[in-house]
Write a structure and sequence with these properties.
By secondary structure, the chain is of the alpha+beta class. It is 55% helix and 17% strand. About 4% of the residues have low confidence.
């Protein structure tokens, strides 16, 4: 039995390495190819074509960077070295800013509660939102909705899509490394770590990431501490420490 488990582990590792190599090669090949065209045959192209080449290089470079970023977080998480630096941020503004950085994505953010301040790491928030938004566009339906609000004492980001219904078993399994829902094929630019990494980052910041089905939508819900409540808790703890020190003198 131990031997079988070891063989399965080695096989899983080999499949993962092959997947990573493939997904890294795809954007890297595009970047190298377009860059060589601009270098070797620059005079053959007009200004419009040159601009298209530059945009494609930028897009595929971003894809490459995001894949590597997820890999680094996943690897460091395995040995407990992922760091977060939370601060008070406008959650809606942070989500909108992230969406503008994703090429080819045109999604609006609904804020029914107005401005919501979260206690979160801005860089890690960008990584979570990028993963959820691109995941919804790749695997969801034609309708993708993003909402920022307060819920049950947390600052919440919801990404909804009307894609294929996820079963209860899928809603848990998709957060495992390299997993995908039944019937879904891994899309280009994905190595199956985005949701795993995003949940880990949310939990490191005192929140969580879950998936539920509501009506005709799959809903990915990120909850993060609300800034004013988190800061009040920290201030109270500091005050208690200060009072204790004063009494002990």
């Amino acid at each position: 039995e131990v031997q079988n488990r070891l063989e399965l582990l080695i096989e899983s590792k080999d499949r993962f390495l092959a997947s990573v190599a493939h997904e890294l090669r795809t954007p890297l090949t595009a970047v190298v190819g377009f860059a060589q065209e601009l270098r070797d045959d620059l005079n053959l192209y007009g200004d419009r074509e040159k601009e298209e080449f530059r945009e494609l290089i930028s897009f595929h470079s971003s894809e490459l960077s995001h894949i590597i970023e997820d890999l680094l977080v996943w690897a460091r998480g395995d040995i407990g070295e992922v760091k977060v630096a939370p601060e008070s941020i406008d959650l809606g503004a942070g989500v909108r800013r992230t969406l503008t950085l994703i090429p080819g994505l045109d999604l609006e953010v609904d804020e029914p509660d107005g401005s919501v301040m979260a206690y979160a790491d801005p860089a890690r928030l960008r990584q979570i939102v990028r993963n959820l938004a691109t995941n919804a566009v790749r695997y969801g339906g034609e309708e993708v909705l993003i909402q920022v609000r307060r819920q049950n004492g947390y600052a919440v980001v919801e990404v909804r899509d009307n894609g294929p219904r996820l079963g209860k078993s899928d809603m848990n399994r998709i957060f495992e490394p390299y997993a995908r829902a039944d019937g879904l094929v891994t899309a280009p630019g994905s190595i199956g770590l985005g949701l795993t990494v995003s949940r880990s980052l949310a939990r490191l910041q005192g929140g969580d990431l879950v998936c539920v089905r509501e009506g005709s939508h799959n809903v990915f819900r990120v909850s993060l501490p609300i800034a004013d409540e988190q800061l009040a808790t920290v201030s109270g703890a500091v005050a208690e420490v200060g009072d204790g020190s004063a009494r002990s003198r």
